[in-house]
Amino acid sequence: MEPDRQDLRRASARAFFESLDQMNELARAQEASQAAKSNSTSVPSPAAKQKKPKPQFSFAELEEAIADIEQFMQSREENRGDGEDGEMGK
């Protein structure tokens, strides 16, 4: 992959994760606000206390996944290039 395309992909991935972090922060703030409202009006049921936490991914794990995807896409592009040179029937 060309260095410029790779830099662009990394910058795009970084921007995506920054947006994802902002959305996550907003969701947490809304949950906290709703929890404060519901706590002031009623006592939560035992079932509500037993909810499982949502899985969270670290930034490093997401970066690793992006790197794996980039590597996969690069290997696919390289394989396509190899296939074009040795096409059969021509």
- Structural class call reads mainly alpha
Biggest sheet record: none
| General shape | elongated
State the assembly state of the protein chains. Answer: single chain
List the helices and strands and how they pair.
Elements: H1 3-41, H2 46-49, H3 59-85
In short:
The protein is built from three helices and no strands. It has 90 residues and is mainly α.
Verbal overview:
The protein is mainly α and about 90 residues long. The chain has helices at about 5-40, 45-50, 60-85. The two termini are about 25 Å apart. Residues about 85-90 have low confidence and may be disordered.
What attributes characterize this protein structure?
mainly alpha; 90 residues
